[in-house]
Amino acid sequence: MSGRVVCFGELLLRLGAPGRQRLLQSPLLEAHVGGAEANVAVSLARLGHEAAMVSVVPDNPLGEAACGELRRHGVDTRAVSTAPGRMGLYFLETGAIQRPSRVLYDRAGSAFAIAGTRPYDWPALLAGAAWLHLSGVTPALGERGAEAAIVAARAARDAGVRVCFDGNFRSSLWRESNCEPAPILYTLMSLADLAFADHRDIAVVLGTKAAGFADAEDTAAAARLAFETFPNLQRLACTHREQRDVDHHRLSASLFHRDGSVLRATPRDLSGIVDRIGAGDAFAAGLLHALLSGMSDEHGLAFALAAASLKHSVPGDFNLVDLQDVNDLIAGGGFHVRR
Amino acid sequence: MSGRVVCFGELLLRLGAPGRQRLLQSPLLEAHVGGAEANVAVSLARLGHEAAMVSVVPDNPLGEAACGELRRHGVDTRAVSTAPGRMGLYFLETGAIQRPSRVLYDRAGSAFAIAGTRPYDWPALLAGAAWLHLSGVTPALGERGAEAAIVAARAARDAGVRVCFDGNFRSSLWRESNCEPAPILYTLMSLADLAFADHRDIAVVLGTKAAGFADAEDTAAAARLAFETFPNLQRLACTHREQRDVDHHRLSASLFHRDGSVLRATPRDLSGIVDRIGAGDAFAAGLLHALLSGMSDEHGLAFALAAASLKHSVPGDFNLVDLQDVNDLIAGGGFHVRR
Amino acid sequence: MSGRVVCFGELLLRLGAPGRQRLLQSPLLEAHVGGAEANVAVSLARLGHEAAMVSVVPDNPLGEAACGELRRHGVDTRAVSTAPGRMGLYFLETGAIQRPSRVLYDRAGSAFAIAGTRPYDWPALLAGAAWLHLSGVTPALGERGAEAAIVAARAARDAGVRVCFDGNFRSSLWRESNCEPAPILYTLMSLADLAFADHRDIAVVLGTKAAGFADAEDTAAAARLAFETFPNLQRLACTHREQRDVDHHRLSASLFHRDGSVLRATPRDLSGIVDRIGAGDAFAAGLLHALLSGMSDEHGLAFALAAASLKHSVPGDFNLVDLQDVNDLIAGGGFHVRR
Amino acid sequence: MSGRVVCFGELLLRLGAPGRQRLLQSPLLEAHVGGAEANVAVSLARLGHEAAMVSVVPDNPLGEAACGELRRHGVDTRAVSTAPGRMGLYFLETGAIQRPSRVLYDRAGSAFAIAGTRPYDWPALLAGAAWLHLSGVTPALGERGAEAAIVAARAARDAGVRVCFDGNFRSSLWRESNCEPAPILYTLMSLADLAFADHRDIAVVLGTKAAGFADAEDTAAAARLAFETFPNLQRLACTHREQRDVDHHRLSASLFHRDGSVLRATPRDLSGIVDRIGAGDAFAAGLLHALLSGMSDEHGLAFALAAASLKHSVPGDFNLVDLQDVNDLIAGGGFHVRR
Amino acid sequence: MSGRVVCFGELLLRLGAPGRQRLLQSPLLEAHVGGAEANVAVSLARLGHEAAMVSVVPDNPLGEAACGELRRHGVDTRAVSTAPGRMGLYFLETGAIQRPSRVLYDRAGSAFAIAGTRPYDWPALLAGAAWLHLSGVTPALGERGAEAAIVAARAARDAGVRVCFDGNFRSSLWRESNCEPAPILYTLMSLADLAFADHRDIAVVLGTKAAGFADAEDTAAAARLAFETFPNLQRLACTHREQRDVDHHRLSASLFHRDGSVLRATPRDLSGIVDRIGAGDAFAAGLLHALLSGMSDEHGLAFALAAASLKHSVPGDFNLVDLQDVNDLIAGGGFHVRR
Amino acid sequence: MSGRVVCFGELLLRLGAPGRQRLLQSPLLEAHVGGAEANVAVSLARLGHEAAMVSVVPDNPLGEAACGELRRHGVDTRAVSTAPGRMGLYFLETGAIQRPSRVLYDRAGSAFAIAGTRPYDWPALLAGAAWLHLSGVTPALGERGAEAAIVAARAARDAGVRVCFDGNFRSSLWRESNCEPAPILYTLMSLADLAFADHRDIAVVLGTKAAGFADAEDTAAAARLAFETFPNLQRLACTHREQRDVDHHRLSASLFHRDGSVLRATPRDLSGIVDRIGAGDAFAAGLLHALLSGMSDEHGLAFALAAASLKHSVPGDFNLVDLQDVNDLIAGGGFHVRR
Predict the structure, then answer these.
(1) In a domain, D68, yes or no
(2) Is B281 a catalytic site residue?
(3) Does the predicted model carry a pTM greater than 0.90?
(4) Contact status of A97 with chain B (Cβ, < 8 Å)
(5) Which residues of chain D are within 8 Å of residue E268 when distances are taken between CB atoms?
(6) How many domains does chain E have?
(7) ipTM value
(8) Which domain holds residue C239?
(9) Is A175 on the interface with B (CB under 8 A)?
(10) Domain CATH for B160
(11) H or E element in which residue B49 lies
């Protein structure tokens, strides 16, 4: 398949309590590498695309390990440089039944967050790329992150590289960042060809204009307003999640076009969830795959939802599935043991 | 919050097969500390109360470890003394689907069971306490346990400390004890201000008078008879459990008053159960918390049921949740990841 | 109970990814011993029967470990000999939700597969036996396996030992074997008194005659055709599995007789499945137990389905339950903790 | 090889802290099956002999698991019966450097200890046996154990079965037993053809007569006195252990004959010890193997010491080595990787 | 024993690679709680003293877990408060043979480091205390840490509480702190009654005056100079470590007095080291125990060295031994298994 | 550093028993990726060189995992193709004290072994390479392996790429291969610029001419004969290992030149060995690094020995160290904790 995808964002080390234990209930932590944009890069590499990560890590064994995990799954890490600062961490406690999962971010002062725009030579990094993928997590890390994200997205537009932006709104990070999210996200959305955002994300970006978008029913209206506001935007997609309890969700997805047309994928019922972290990233990667592969949007949306659904069955942040896994699910191959 | 709670009972070491393995299927056992009354103490300490354990353990690393776990969760263990005898153990095999969990008690000859009444200076231990909590497990350990429980409960009444008694009827223990449960439990119930008991427990205590209470529908009638029989009793509560299979229950709860009024909490559907051991103790602790905190009984019952429901999501005997976890669930905060 | 059962087939070492991880996602593999016929032998030994394994393993620690596991569960392994070749392996990745489990066979060149008929002195091995159990896996290993299976089954008929044959059709093995399944399976079915086969298995055996048996509804017709074709066949049984997703199945079972009568067991709803590998073998062993114990066929079918259902709750290939576990489930003893 | 060996004693479940952790430092315990006489039985079975265990276990999963482990290693467990009581346990904390290992016995009230002499039909159990092996642990369990051991040893002498007695003096058990060790051990020694005992064991048995045997240098004199006292005794053997620290020992062994001749094996330097529990039993089994195999005593002593030395490299109580492992070590095959 | 000890310093969470793996070689980390002063507090509590921790942790599950671990081992944590900031972490890779262990500090921005002096009401915290223990790690965290340490030490002197100061010089921390160590450490030494420091520590504190103290031989001279410089100082102690390789050290210890007298403990040879982190803290706690218990200095030094030696055999930062363990080692009880 | 190194050989999956357990003593296996030439590739990549692997794996998750591990450590795997056949495995049991480690090869029929010469376009693969590294393991896999190795080495000479050949003589593989090692190894040695071989390897290659080289003292004479026989050979190196026991070795190394000069590195004493597998490959990679970096041969030999020594401290087949680790050891930086 054609078209290199450049993913820009922070690499994180996830430290999770085993099984359904409370954090540090027993003295073991399971380490996984993650990060919203890295998750997309891994998905794309596993689906057969050329995916490159642009990031900054500290020059220590944690930074090395994170890069090693990306390489293991086929991501090009030559554009991950090292700089002073610490490794961004997050602690995860996986919930169960009626006890929600909890993420404890410990990423302040990370090498990536404090690096600003300096480490990146965007014209070189984007040469030959089809897409730049970034997310709303980077600007939420603070002023430097915001600047770095905007510079990257502008460089992509300048270079004729399409921009994919995943809103990924995390209020706790923005609170800590002491930045106002709306203007920054507005700028990033205005540079995007493809955006992942639901009615809440759009409401954050557009402020009072979108304040009325109170629930999922309003996503179509929010999308219309987004297309009006952002002339570069060609497609807007999102998932919707009904949660019966912590382990049992119903996942659906919508894809909106500039022309007002709306596609809705058949929802998937997911019970006995193993790990839902990274499902949104798996969805984004699935849709990027669909666009890179020239699928119809209808098939593409179904592919993206199937990919996101499979993510719920895989431990860790990465969606460790391949094309055949997703296509089998779409084809309704059933759930018998594959021998 | 005001009011120290003194919990009296045996500390146990639980040795459980990992995951859903049969006991000793593989050569690993997971150790947890438990015991009905210790579970209540831990819950109360985590909910912010002053909770003290009164017990006896052997003077060896197992006894020390049990005390250490209680302290870790904030329970005052200064009144846990050491004495000859062994540590009470139980082996646990967690079932799945249609294979029930199994408990293999190995507590005969424990330091607690053979200690009798000697180690406890009740007037000192109860000084300044609001409640004494004990359960039907202690008298089921044999004559000395029965005597120790009755002496403790009497000392509490004498000292103006309210008595909370959880029936916790375990027929296999009573069988081994060579004691007749009815008269002993009768005495303990007669000393209680608050009791946890369902129609079966009451039928055991009251014998022929209550023999007709055959199913859960009869609990209200059984409760009325209990209030008639035991003039000290102010409240009687119980949970009710419909089991679709080993991993999927529907849990409800009722609270009965002397005046005949009955409260029923909205049932909770619990699927994908992680560990149900200790849920009854979590319920008892929840209701004690409600009383100590001056909640309305209606809110208190909802709180206790929510606490008991959360216990099903936590591995081990202790309900490792805090006030906010329970309040979030009651408030319907939903099941999304908390970041 | 009376009647030794001789099980003939390959012992396998299963190497499985822990939990719901993808294969080698983390660097640990869990080892279990299995093999369709060995699974039956272990079930029978645990249900109180004399069960002997006839097989060949390499003379190395893997072969020794496999025999050791059988002995541990009470199977007589004196008729497992050693020969050149390797240990048959399979790698297992347990799926979840909508991601199916995967088996990667690595059994080519195994000591058993290349041993042919030479190691077995059937008259001696079958002396005093009530049943010989074998399955369609052995002939699927190639020409030598096919010959070995047929020789064994013929020896049993000659010795007046009843033959139980489980179709266990594995198309990937047959493909690798370069053998045509139909004539070989036809011969084996013609020697069997009891067969486990559904409409697909029968269609494979009978070829065009049975080509119309497209779905589970046709199993009764397929069974009728099988009884017509195979005069030795007295009973034919199979399970049927509706799969809501990877973790939630509805399992039913049918038992067909020569006289055209059909028994259907009440289906069992199995959610939160732990490990479904070996459930078919657990069913076969359950029905053999029923026949050996003189149960009515109706009770026997219920017993076999209950045994197969319990297997879904036990990690590994072996159905580590005993008579009381199965009888408790049939008796509807409920799902509370057994203390 | 010829000659069945019957081993009589208690089966124990060892629960050990992982690695070099203190007991319950982390909440995991590793389970192993052991027991002095069972260790001998497993060694002998692995060395190619027919070994049968005579014992009593409780009728629960712990007792079953213990028997299963013996069978796994080839021991005949048909003479292990079930009886009321609990499973004998011991907790193990493996030390390191200058912190000694600790064993916490928890075997009071075990099914074996309270069974007495009733479960054993010795004439039947000893039919065709070459040796009965028992140890000083059984009488140390109390009066019933002492009686059971003496009855067994007498039955062996009556049946012309040679008696092998391993002193295995455990003062903490004797203290708890409220029995006087000297007369009981005296009786057992008087029935033995082969005994394992060092100067301390002999001093305990012979009391004042042997009080002067203060250190290892006196073992030969002690042995002479033992031969004088016990006319049935043909051989007496012991190991001697110089301990540089917890992980580094120098192990030697001596074999004494009635005729006063003494053999000393070349000591072995053992550093980086993995698990020394059961080394004495491995030595005893090694010498029994030598006698059963008709080795010269010199070779036999070297074999026994090599076997005991290898035990230090194997986790658990059982000496999981085979003939070739021991012979390789004796032959000086070196320490390179065997490929 | 009499005399409460107040320990002031940061609580840390240690995340270590399992066994001898490189950091993140496999995706598991073992969590331990540590911190130089906390290690002393735990040692003292386990040796029977009243030990209280004064510290600040973040209000999250990591902070809670750290306090829980201290309570588990008997330390009073009521004076550990919560404040904004993160939990101090360190990553540990345990080396082997000729590959040194590595510590990767990740403690910048910790709640403790940024808390400054505000959270501590020293007069109240020190009421009734015999000793305040602090170390050179706290001032190495930066200006606020330095100020907090000095304020604490001054408050102790003002309150007549003796000050114990462990130099614990960590150059990498001081480098990051942008502070000059000499003047700060000078002030702290000048307030101490008891100090732990070797010739290098003293050289850092005294600068040019002590520049000539190049190796361990000079420690006595360095000590003399320290006593001259710091009139409050009564005793100065240090360990000395000869390292044959990563796993094999020879540990000795010296104790210097104002009067110029010097005690040297008999060195201990430690091979097969399990975990050396915290050995210095174990030594400090051992000497404090000796002083609190009124031992002779000679016995006290031997006790402290024995305690430090035992630490090398215990995984984690805490010296999980008790009085009897240390006394047994001093008494030369040998290395046999304690039963 | 300049110069790409192409490594040609089989990728293997190692399945090892945990700790010092016997194989399958407990039901867990630890997976590592290895293979003599892959080990060299990983070492070189970690030391900063461009290293590419040329190999063939099956198209399944095991093959993918092996490639992923190489990529993780920076090896270029684009020249690893897939082909029919299985994954080469080996089972490892790590010995202890006087029990040697055991390797059980299970690599017959592997995709690599049966691939022959077809998958490799050597001119393209070698373009721009400085060295081709291969070993005596590949020809030991059988006729096709031998042909593939010789074709590769010839292609390298033709392309002016230097050839590094590691003898790696494994008699058990050669026995299974039904090939005569001498002529094949002779051909490969004749193509090599650098060879790793000791007196035994040379004796195998040169047959009767070298039969007298009976022990390590003869290596220099053997080397002289090798230089006479093979005019392309510039350097010949080997390690020598004195084994005190399984865990304690003394490792030395020699480097021989065409001109007859001999260098001997100072031996290193390695006690408490963690994992010695791959130490020879670490040595080879160290020397290649030295040559690629333009070190003096003396420094290079010391570097290679230090690298090989460090390997003994790292679990798995790969030498997970970097330049600084090796240089620190050579510089005598000592064994204190690096903070």
Answers:
(1) yes
(2) yes
(3) yes
(4) yes
(5) 98
(6) 1
(7) 0.95
(8) 4-331
(9) no
(10) 3.40.1190.20
(11) none
